[in-house]
């Protein structure tokens, strides 16, 4: 065998070794026991943190700003675990398309983020960018009220002063405005996320919303639902002087992927692309009707960016990818070490005890907890989504 052949064989065999190792790792990641361990760490650490958040209640009376800062850090311990699962466990890559002049401002000012709502893990990709720009603990969202009752995440949000809405304007107009005003003296930089479409995109909801677009004389959108403008207007009005800009963010995934949280848990790698345009808040009209028209135009532009992505596989503008930071992984490893050691001891004692009753009770408790986490994951699934935006509306109902 000549030296070239020898070298090639070497490369092929190390390559084979590498892909065998990758295959084994992938197999490990798809094992139910691994998912159980990840969910156990998330659930137990989350409940401990929720409890610690509850303990900060007296602090709110003494120093509201200190209580807020403490809660930002506690919240980081929860949300960064999901970011770690996305970045380190599944290896999902997130690429940012944006203009380099705006880049240094990201993370150094308050902003309102407007994003399309078509993917089950869009919020998690959003969190990943928050993490990379150092605003994960403090980031906020206009969320549907139902999410406030989800253990761990929903309870954490209560202490983060997340703005909840019932998606009933008559009630929301005062409560949402009031919650937004509370954020005016927030002590840390935050991004406030608004899914103006108000619900996840499904073919049925798209059809209904395009009927509404037609009845309002608005152009049809191919990739978005018609945006609901009232939440945007009230947010801009109440955060004027607090937020410096709107970050118009358009998200998509390579190869027509439809990513899911279960996919992430199974270690499936996705590739997200996010196109962000920074629009100074002063450019957004104050008048409600003008502001609504501005938002409709923005969604028409977003639709054209999605069209370009579908045609060419890229968004306009240069790629300026923010680096992945180690903190989410460090936090995850910390909680894993802290909680897996007592679990190991408990399991050992259980086996040694040999008591059937104790074993059956433990298995029942574990099953209940995993069903609970499965229900939580279900909250992210579009198939199990709400009926909001599904109702047929008569044409020309304006
Ligand atoms: C550099 C990197 C940059 C960015 C990184 C990206 C992101 C990171 C940022 C932050 C991350 C932070 C947190 C993320 C974590 C988790 C988030 C998870 C999920 C939470 C998301 C949700 O819960 S979405 C659901 C709740 N939110 C919303 O609904 C917001 C949008 N909705 C509104 O604004 C609504 O106006 C409202 C809720 C305020 C009120 O709703 P309501 O239904 O009562 O009212 P509307 O008045 O809007 O509806 C009536 C009008 O709408 C017309 N209509 C009727 N049917 C339809 C239809 N099917 N489609 C469209 N329009 C319809 C109707 O004709 C009325 O029209 P008007 O002309 O009278 O307005
Ligand atoms: C470390 C990894 C841990 C894995 C286990 C994770 C378990 C926790 C799972 C989920 C926590 C709940 C997150 C809630 C975020 C849901 C976001 C969302 O997209 O809400 C939908 C809402 O916009 C619109 O709802 P509809 O489309 O009208 O219905």
UniProtKB/TrEMBL annotation:
Q: What's in the GO CC field?
A: endoplasmic reticulum membrane; mitochondrial outer membrane
Q: Which InterPro entries does its entry note? A: Acyltransf_C, Plipid/glycerol_acylTrfase
- Segments crossing the lipid bilayer: 32-62, 147-165, 332-352, 358-377
Q: How does it sit in the membrane?
A: Multi-pass membrane protein
Broad EC category: transferase
- The yes or no answer to whether the keyword Calcium is present is no
Compartmental location: Endoplasmic reticulum membrane
Q: State whether keyword Cell membrane applies.
A: no
State the function annotated in the UniProt record. Answer: Converts 1-acyl-sn-glycerol-3-phosphate (lysophosphatidic acid or LPA) into 1,2-diacyl-sn-glycerol-3-phosphate (phosphatidic acid or PA) by incorporating an acyl moiety at the sn-2 position of the glycerol backbone. Exhibits high acyl-CoA specificity for polyunsaturated fatty acyl-CoA, especially docosahexaenoyl-CoA (22:6-CoA, DHA-CoA).
Protein family per UniProt: Belongs to the 1-acyl-sn-glycerol-3-phosphate acyltransferase family.
Protein name, entry field:
1-acyl-sn-glycerol-3-phosphate acyltransferase delta
Organism (species): Channa striata (Snakehead murrel)
């Amino acid at each position: 065998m000549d030296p070239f052949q020898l070298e090639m064989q070497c490369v092929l065999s190390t390559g084979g070794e590498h892909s065998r190792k990758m295959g084994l790792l992938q197999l490990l990641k798809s094992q139910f026991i691994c998912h159980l361990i990840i969910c156990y760490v998330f659930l137990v650490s989350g409940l401990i943190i929720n409890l610690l958040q509850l303990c900060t209640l007296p602090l709110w009376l003494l120093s509201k700003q200190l209580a807020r800062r403490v809660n930002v850090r506690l919240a980081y311990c929860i949300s960064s675990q999901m970011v770690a699962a996305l970045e380190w466990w599944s290896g999902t890559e997130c690429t940012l398309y944006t203009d380099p002049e705006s880049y240094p401002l990201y993370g150094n000012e308050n902003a309102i983020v407007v994003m399309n709502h078509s993917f089950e893990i869009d919020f998690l990709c959003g969190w990943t960018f928050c993490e990379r720009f150092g605003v994960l603990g403090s980031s906020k969202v206009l969320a549907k009220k139902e999410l406030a009752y989800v253990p761990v995440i929903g309870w954490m949000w209560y202490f983060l002063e997340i703005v909840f809405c019932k998606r009933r304007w008559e009630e929301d107009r005062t409560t949402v405005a009031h919650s937004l005003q509370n954020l005016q003296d927030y002590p840390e930089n935050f991004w406030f996320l608004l899914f103006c479409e108000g619900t996840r995109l499904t073919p049925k909801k798209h059809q209904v919303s395009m009927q509404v677009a037609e009845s309002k004389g608005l152009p049809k959108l191919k990739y978005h639902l018609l945006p609901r403008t009232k939440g945007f207007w009230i947010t801009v009005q109440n955060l004027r002087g607090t937020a410096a800009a709107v970050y118009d963010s358009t998200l998509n995934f390579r190869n027509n992927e439809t990513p899911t949280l279960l996919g992430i848990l199974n270690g499936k790698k996705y590739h997200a692309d996010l196109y962000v345009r920074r629009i100074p808040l002063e450019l957004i009209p104050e008048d409600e009707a003008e502001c609504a028209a501005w938002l409709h135009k923005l969604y028409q532009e977003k639709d054209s960016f999605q069209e370009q992505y579908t045609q060419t596989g890229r968004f306009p503008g240069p790629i300026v990818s923010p680096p992945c930071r180690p903190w989410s992984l460090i936090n995850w490893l910390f909680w894993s070490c802290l909680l897996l050691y007592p679990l190991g001891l408990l399991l050992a004692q259980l086996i040694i005890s040999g008591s059937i009753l104790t074993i059956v009770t433990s298995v029942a408790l574990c099953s209940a907890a995993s069903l609970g986490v499965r229900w939580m994951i279900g909250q992210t699934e579009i198939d199990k989504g709400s009926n909001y935006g599904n109702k047929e509306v008569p044409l020309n109902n304006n």
